[in-house]
Design goal:
The chain has 149 residues and is an all-alpha fold. It contains eight helices and no strands.
Amino acid sequence: MKTRTKSEMNKIRDIAEDYYIRLGKKGRDIADMLGVTEQTIIAWKKGRDGERTWDERKRDMELTPLKIRELILQEAHKTLSGQKSELDADRLAKLMAAYDRLSKKTNPRTVMDVFMMFDNWMTDEEPDLVVKFTEYHRRFLFYIIERES
């Protein structure tokens, strides 16, 4: 078996993390796909020093804008119907305002996912154009990232 460099292992770790967090793959499946041990995946899931665990980050990823909106609306309904809400009115108003601001922004990762789906589709339609589109996609992603900084 070929010994991998630290750089290669870091790339594999990033891919494994993405498989686990975004795609919901199991540790054993990830280990098999990437040619590492399940123990390696378990160690990576714990996170590096000062990092949140993969499970914590996965939980946060599952908290979509739609789910946040549902939770906020549940609290609003409780308040309006006279039930005891988990949040006071001031906190609820601040959450609603924050949600409104966040829902108007586009996440670069979402843009990247859409571009990848488009490029995969476009490969079958017009393969020669994919190369040109890919460059524009990259430039647009950098533009979005710059605006968020």
